[in-house]
Amino acid sequence: MSSGTASALAHPNIAFIKYWGNLDGSLNLPSNGSISMNLGSLQTATTVQFEPLLTADTLEINQQTQTGPSLKRVQNFMGHIRRLSKSGLFAHIRSESNFPISAGLASSASAYAALALAATAALGIDQTEKELSSLARLGSGSAARSIPAGFVEWHASETHAGSFAKSIAGPDYWDLRDMIVIIQKQPKSTGSADGHGLADTSPFQSLRVENAPTRLEICRQAILERDFAHLAEIVELDSMMMHAVMMTSRPPLFYWEPLTLQIIKSVQNWRRDGLQVCVTVDAGSNLHLICPFGYTQMVTEMLKTTSGIQSVMVSPPGGPAHLI
Ligand code: DP6
Q1: CB under 8 Å to 114, separation ≥6 — which residues?
Q2: CATH fold label, 4-172
């Protein structure tokens, strides 16, 4: 019997309107829709090689053999692929990312988007973009958004097939930059996978979910009209609402470090002074500063006045997950 091999590349994404909390945690069906931008400078490349003689999937990340929870999670995901393809084959999976993993940089998004595409291609399963997005979602919710190109919206739905992401605009539509400000490199203490499960323990989560369609509409329009002022306002409001839910969960989740808050306040001051820049923070202490390309240099200069920053990565909008 012949065995199949395929390689795929995907970019992580930064959410402008965040996903936090699930209707169904086993299927990663989100409580609310979300909108993101793929990050073209950051990528994960994954090769999947099915082998008839293997008795379990193996996983190598950045040349290190994985055991424990990260392997288990990938093996669970590969179980979905085997059910879909009615195949009993196991695979060697090798994955390389060009950015620090597990530091609130959504490495699981690019990882599961690349894995979903490489694994289905290796088995010769034809998937539409929609189907691939729903499939990637089973590995990591935000991976659904790393399948389509550019600026992407992921729809909330009560069904597996209904919860997929779709492009709102291609990567060339708006020349924005994500300036990723790293203040801490070690992995976060509570990963998003566990954090999602706590969302409903916050009294603010229902309000956040109820108001999501309004925020999504404002964000979608701001992207389509390339309206930075409105984008900035809604991106910051949405990030604060998610962190308010995190901080008021039981047990509470505090992802910010003092420097996170200091930079948030600086960004708001810079904007008041006329710089087109806004800030959003995921489940970690690092920050994403969003600005039009023309402001990158000025924002870089401003960041130099802040001590404690380890590094800054700059990314334009990125394309879709694709085979390599
Ligand atoms: C805060 O889908 O990345 O980044 O795969 O379980 O880690 P896990 O969850 P994931 O959650 C993303 C949460 C977020 C917001 C967002 O990207 O929408």
Answers
A1: 8, 9, 10, 44, 45, 46, 95, 321
A2: Ribosomal Protein S5; domain 2 (3.30.230)
